[in-house]
Amino acid sequence: MKIGLVSLGCPKNLVDSEVMLGLAAEAGHELTQDPSAADVLVVNTCAFIDSAKQESIDTILEMAEHKKGGACRRLIVTGCMAERYRDELKKEIPEIDAVLGTGEVPDIVGAISGGAAPLTFHRSPERLALQSSQPAPSPEPPVRSARPTYLYDASTPRVFATPRHYAYIKIAEGCDYKCAFCIIPTLRGAYRSRPAESIVREARALADRGVKELLLISQDTTFYGIDRGERGALARLLRQLNAVDGLEWIRLLYLYPTTIDEETLAAMADCDRVCKYIDLPLQHASNEVLKRMKRPGTRQSYDRLLTRIRTQVPGVALRTTFIVGFPGETEADVDQLRGFVADHGFDHVGVFTYSHEEGTSAFTLDDDVPAKAKAARRASVMSLQKSLVQKRQRERIGGRARVIVDGPSNDHDLVLKARLETQAPDIDASVFLSECDPSAYRAGDFLDVEIVGANGYDLIARP
Predict the structure, then answer these.
(1) Rounded Cα distance, 248 and 207, in Å
(2) How far from 417 is each of 280, 386, 430, CA to CA, in Å?
(3) C-alpha of 132 from chain center
(4) What DSSP assignment string belongs to 39-83?
(5) 3-state DSSP call for residue 270?
(6) What is the structure's pLDDT at 120?
(7) Mean pLDDT across the chain
(8) Which DSSP state fits 115?
(9) Which among 409, 401, 433, 425 has a CA at the least distance from the CA of 165?
């Protein structure tokens, strides 16, 4: 049969999508990017915040339309929203034929054929408000009888959805932290690391197929190996990956502030293929807000950590994310956050407005910051960050750098899109190459450039 898949959410979810496509292809099915031509449609959903849930619902409903007179005979919903609202989805959207949670990725082949019944979890009688961003009426979290335990390995087939020159490797799954705003431990299960041998074997296979940039991901990448009693495992893994022929850049995403050890920083400083780039979600800088968020850090400990990182890894780029509008947050708390951003000059900052999610411990708190105030606070932090970055980008004009080419710009056929070592794909700014023949370069090529201009967050360069 022809299988079409829509993947929503983060790169971690994307890897699950690639595995499902790989399993489907291995079973003899044909893959298609045209939903109208698919016999079976799969929507791999996200459910982290309200907007992600709404996007998932909208996409499911859009794909369900293909069952009305189209080629589609089966609609399968997978991923985090399926894990969280299994029964509610089937009840509210009867076009859905199968629902697979995050731990049921290998069941995709049976779900495609209709020959395997999904696992059943017992849940509370809460009803999902499918067409609304309002929380479900019951404050009780879903009741589960099991937590996901699935974890793919190097022998698992994958069909890659990323461009040929970069790929993600999920080095672990799940999370053991209990952050007040986060539902991920419930959706993804306990933290579980892959063996280093499996990761290195997968990295070699990716390098052999032309991958130049490897992005290591998990819910907490710096916790890697600790669950297996392997202290220092991430640093050892980085040194092993640094020796893989064919790889040029190895990038770490989703590091946790309390599990960054000296060995990891030393490996990052020593290994020439490990990008000097740290993605460190800090969430806030007010001690009171951090305490209510159940985050194991303070403004003071974050100050020391960031100083230590910059000292031990010269030239490192720092990316972080914050949440504004958490219950009880005041304007004074946001002032502290803005001061923190100004003090540390992060290279990349993302700001989310707090989403009141059932099943989290913060759901018992009053969602007392109005939506307009949340939006205004987000805008104020992002405005500050933009002004800081624009100043630094202008200072780079006239300098030289090494970039990886991602391909033609979406806006202009005669302009190439590229990235510095300090820029991750999809989430960070880009370098746009002008004054060159685009046909002379392919995606995945590395070249030296001169920075000739800046446009907001982006840079303009020429070979």
Answers:
(1) 9
(2) 25, 21, 7
(3) 25
(4) SEEEEEE--SSHHHHHHHHHHHHHHHGGGTTSS--EEEEEEHHHH
(5) helix
(6) 35
(7) 90
(8) -
(9) 425
How crowded is residue 179: how many other Cβ atoms within 10 Å of its Cβ?
Answer: 19
Q: What is the pLDDT of residue 200?
A: 98
Contact by Cβ (8 Å): 164, 26: no
Tell me how far CA of residue 337 lies from CA of 175, 303, 326, in angstroms. Answer: 26, 12, 13
Question: How much is the pLDDT for 16?
Answer: 96
Cβ-contact 40, 76 below 8 angstroms? yes
Low-confidence ranges of the chain (pLDDT < 70): 115-146, 413
Report the alpha-carbon distance of residue 155 to residue 106 in Å, rounded.
13
Q: Give the residues across from 353 on adjacent strands.
A: 324
Predicted local confidence at residue 115, as pLDDT: 63
143: nearest Cα among 219, 80, 79, 86? 86
> Parallel, antiparallel, or unpaired: how do β-strands 400-408 and 446-455 relate?
antiparallel
Return d(Cα 96, Cα 290) in angstroms, integer. 40
Cα–Cα nearest to 25, from 10, 51, 3: 3
User: Do residues 7 and 14 touch, judged by C-beta distance below 8 A?
Assistant: yes
**Distance between CA atoms of residues 411 and 418, nearest Å:** 14
pTM of the predicted structure, to 2 decimals? 0.90
Strand partners, 455: 458
